[in-house]
Write a structure and sequence with these properties.
The protein has 4 helices and 4 strands. It is α/β, with parallel strands linked by helices. A 4-stranded parallel beta sheet has the order 2-1-3-4, with helices on both faces. Strand 1, helix 1 and strand 2 form a beta-alpha-beta unit. It is globular, with a radius of gyration of 16 Å.
Length: 132
Amino acid sequence: MEKSAKIYIAGHHGLVGSAIWRNLQEKGYTNLTGRSHKELDLLDGVAVKDFFDQERPEYVILAAAHVGGIMANSTYRADFIYKNLQIQQNVIGESFRHGVKKLLFLGSTCIYPRDAQHEGGCSPHLPAGIYE
């Protein structure tokens, strides 16, 4: 990526997104763009389309998600999967429609139910399992 390329970081106020923002700034990238949830609701497809129409990012980093911790994930399973799929659909869809050069999508196993079977089993770095 060129240092002047327009890079949209969805979720730039979150833990991972803010770290990516700082890292890119430290490496000399000068055209970063982000919006707070109040400025752009990623659940609103029309608003996301309007944002992409106006900003025309060349690169997109999707670090945004509806989050709430293990208890909230367990209690509101359908809400979490629905909202996160909607965010992903809106941002990934507009990235495709606007011809972004690269899209980096970040996800977490915390967005999946605790007892879900993961292909290949646990990582060798977590041999006892995540919740044990």
